[in-house]
């Protein structure tokens, strides 16, 4: 009985390793081929032949200094857009969710909540074209550039991420006992003080979840930035830059794969540090 | 906080009225078609001043309401401008000859009729449905098997979970290019011609990449479901002499029915919206001979990409928007069915 169980475990372990090898194989190819020149990539894409650190350095400098890719600039833009959007979504989302859950017996709050929830089924494709024209017109009208600008895209992410953020946060705030707020109010705390000093700190775990979900989406999003910022605009996020770069270097695999490595590296590094939170956050977001 | 909110009557009035004056001033400039470069800054400062003044108004009675309004405004405003307003506008535009900038007349259902006469569009709809069904079954099956593996007694579970989940971290565009390399430079030594250049195999390739990206994520949800099954239930079944297969079909599967529902609809909607991988991997190219009496040159183009290409590449905004509205209607129906199914389940439990 014990022996049979052990054999079973060994077989399962081998299967698991084989699947892991299959899943990780493309990552291996990206990393390994970044160390090689174009000719040795084409000749032997799987083996280590021709790989050298000097070549990696050469590829990296070529990619980073490329005017179509402009890695550091694109990386900075992506990071800036993601961070500002996440902070605003957390603060504004928390504020809105608090108001909604503290007025959940009133009709207007229920109506706003329902509109938020219903809007989650709206696919981006159905709003993207009028969104661009609206942003263009509004931008021209009021004199604030909404397209090809970081504030404009942050504004859009707050709008698109708002519904899911409010949905998850409201569910959590409803579970916080109201007595806590009453006590603060009796002690002379204003409503805004109650929110920022008492409720907001309590939201930390659920804000983490929301931030992970929104962060994965915003960092990797391609369609929205490509439409709003344009393929060859001045401001570029990382996915848009990769797309523009690949478009200009067909089959230049040494550069493309190095660019891909640079594009996936930040996410992998963050994942290494926050693996548990990211994995459980993704699940919580889906189950709710 | 309270003292700030009370004793600043003059300040609050200055800010409030000043804010309104700035907003009105900026809007008047806008309407006169002025190109004064600080009018945008004027508007923003005006709005901030308006809200600060509103916040500082010394009223005990209405203070709570004012705070509620200020708290709700930012998110609600961005949401209305980016989602609701374009949605209404977009549905309206789908009945016009909109060019992306302006429209001159209403054309009724003309856009909707012409899209059903287009073989390439019908092809992409069919393709999308096949792709969705295929993915829904395969992703769920594979993810569930992976979840069983990752909840078994085998060693290295933590590593397996992480490894299987890893592809989900990468955006579709980058991932599409990586797999383009795999198909056209690595697997070519086995397949002779690249799969991406043959329409049928290219579709298969998209399915493979999609599973590679998505199965690890769905697996995590199944793992959560499986670990929530109470241990004593499994113990009782093993005491009663149930073998592994019986436990799987009689205990585990029924106990995670709600998880299966969640995962099924999650894969359904996400496969339906698939865009990035489709675009980066094949760009929608591929030949289909003789479909509805004509040659389709966009053999691997799915619905989301078709909408994009119609509007952006072919510059036919009205038609693209009409297709997008249809896309929305289909997704809305799917979501309604999902709500029905999960509500029914909850009642039964």
Task: Report what the structure shows.
The complex is a heterodimer of chains A (288) and B (349). Among the domains of chain A are: 2-55, no CATH class; 76-219, Orthogonal Bundle (MetI-like fold). Chain A has helices at residues 2-33, 38-43, 53-65, 71-102, 107-119, 124-142, 150-173, 178-186, 191-202, 204-220, 223-229, 238-248, 253-273, 275-287. Chain A is globular, with a radius of gyration of 24 Å. Chain A contains 14 helices and no strands. Chain B has 16 helices and 2 strands. In chain B, a hairpin with a 2-residue loop joins β1 (288-291) and β2 (294-296). The model of chain B is unreliable at 1-5 (pLDDT under 50).
Put the structure in a nutshell.
The complex is a heterodimer of chains A (288) and B (349). Chain A is mainly α and 288 residues long. The relative contact order of chain B is 0.10.
Query: Tally of extended strands of chain A?
Result: 0
Integer tally of domains of chain B = 2
Write the H/E string of chain B, N to C: HHHHHHHHHHHHHHEEHH
Total beta strands of chain B: 2
Q: Note the total helix count of chain B.
A: 16
Largest interface: A-B, 96 and 97 residues
Structural class of chain A: mainly alpha
Q: How helical, in percent, are the residues of chain A?
A: over 70%
CATH architecture of the largest domain in chain B: Orthogonal Bundle
| Broad CATH class of the domain at 76-219 in chain A | Mainly Alpha
Largest sheet of chain A: none
CATH topology of the largest domain in chain B: MetI-like fold
Please specify the SSE layout and strand pairing.
The complex is a heterodimer of chains A (288) and B (349).
Chain A: H1 2-33, H2 38-43, H3 53-65, H4 71-102, H5 107-119, H6 124-142, H7 150-173, H8 178-186, H9 191-202, H10 204-220, H11 223-229, H12 238-248, H13 253-273, H14 275-287
Helix pairs in contact in A: 3-13, 4-7, 4-10, 5-7, 7-10, 8-9, 10-14, 12-13
Chain B: H1 2-6, H2 9-31, H3 39-56, H4 63-93, H5 110-116, H6 119-150, H7 157-165, H8 172-186, H9 188-191, H10 199-227, H11 231-239, H12 244-255, H13 257-272, H14 276-281, E1 288-291, E2 294-296, H15 303-313, H16 317-348
Antiparallel strand pairs in B: 1-2
Helix pairs in contact in B: 2-3, 5-16, 6-7, 6-10, 6-13, 7-10, 10-13, 13-16, 15-16
């Amino acid at each position: 009985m014990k022996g049979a169980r052990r054999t079973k475990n060994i077989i399962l372990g081998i299967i698991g390793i084989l699947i892991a090898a299959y899943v990780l194989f493309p990552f291996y190819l990206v990393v390994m081929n970044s160390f090689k020149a174009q000719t040795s990539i084409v000749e032997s894409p799987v083996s280590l032949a021709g790989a050298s650190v000097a070549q990696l350095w050469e590829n990296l400098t070529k990619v980073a200094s490329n005017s179509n890719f402009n890695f550091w600039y694109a990386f900075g833009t992506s990071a800036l857009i993601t961070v500002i959007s996440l902070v605003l979504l957390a603060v504004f989302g928390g504020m809105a969710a608090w108001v909604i859950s503290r007025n959940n017996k009133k009709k207007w709050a229920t109506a706003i909540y329902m509109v938020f929830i219903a809007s989650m089924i709206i696919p981006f494709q159905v709003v993207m074209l009028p969104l661009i024209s609206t942003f263009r017109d509004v931008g021209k009208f009021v004199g604030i550039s909404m397209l090809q600008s970081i504030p404009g895209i942050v504004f859009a992410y707050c709008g698109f991420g708002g519904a899911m953020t409010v949905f998850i946060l409201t569910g959590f705030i409803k579970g916080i006992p109201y007595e806590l707020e009453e006590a603060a109010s009796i002690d002379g705390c204003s409503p805004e003080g109650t929110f920022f000093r008492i409720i907001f700190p309590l939201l930390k775990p659920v804000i983490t979840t929301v931030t992970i979900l929104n962060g994965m989406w915003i960092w990797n999003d391609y369609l929205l930035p490509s439409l709003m910022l344009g393929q060859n605009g001045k401001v570029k996020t990382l996915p848009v830059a990769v797309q523009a770069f690949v478009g200009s270097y067909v089959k230049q695999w040494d550069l493309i794969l190095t660019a891909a490595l640079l594009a996936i590296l930040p996410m992998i590094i963050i994942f290494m540090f926050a693996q548990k939170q990211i994995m459980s956050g993704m699940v919580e977001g889906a189950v709710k | 906080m309270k003292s700030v909110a009370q004793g600043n009557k003059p300040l609050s009035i200055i800010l409030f009225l000043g804010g309104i004056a700035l907003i009105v001033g900026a809007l008047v400039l806008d309407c006169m078609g002025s190109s004064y470069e600080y009018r945008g800054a004027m508007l923003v400062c005006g709005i901030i001043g308006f809200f600060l003044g509103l916040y500082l108004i010394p009223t005990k009675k209405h203070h709570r309401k004012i705070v509620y309004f200020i708290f709700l405004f930012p998110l609600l405003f961005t949401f209305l401008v980016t989602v609701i307003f374009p949605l209404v506008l977009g549905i309206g535009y789908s009945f016009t000859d909109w060019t992306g900038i302006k429209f001159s007349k209403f054309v009724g259902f003309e856009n909707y009729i012409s899209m059903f006469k287009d073989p390439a569009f019908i092809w992409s709809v069919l393709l999308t449905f096949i792709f969705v069904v295929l993915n829904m079954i395969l992703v769920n099956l594979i993810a569930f098997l992976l979840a069983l593996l990752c909840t078994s007694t085998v060693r290295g579970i933590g590593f397996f979970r992480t490894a299987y989940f890893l592809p989900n971290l990468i955006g579709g565009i980058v991932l599409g290019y990586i797999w383009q390399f795999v198909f056209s430079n690595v697997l070519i030594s086995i397949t002779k011609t690249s799969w991406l250049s043959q329409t049928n195999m290219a579709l298969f390739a998209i399915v493979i990449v999609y599973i590679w990206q998505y199965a690890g994520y769905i697996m995590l949800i199944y793992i959560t479901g499986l670990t929530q099954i109470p241990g004593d239930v499994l113990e009782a079944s093993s005491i009663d002499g149930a073998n592994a297969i019986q436990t799987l079909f009689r205990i585990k599967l029924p106990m995670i029915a709600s998880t299966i529902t969640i995962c099924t609809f999650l894969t359904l909607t996400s496969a339906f919206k698939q865009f990035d991988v489709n675009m980066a991997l094949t760009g929608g190219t591929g030949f289909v001979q003789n479909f509805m009496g004509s040659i389709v040159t966009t053999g691997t183009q799915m619905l989301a990409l078709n909408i994009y290409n119609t509007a952006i590449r072919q510059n036919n905004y009205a038609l693209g928007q009409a297709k997008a509205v249809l896309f929305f209607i289909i997704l809305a129906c799917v979501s309604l069915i999902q709500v029905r199914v999960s509500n029914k389940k909850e009642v039964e439990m």
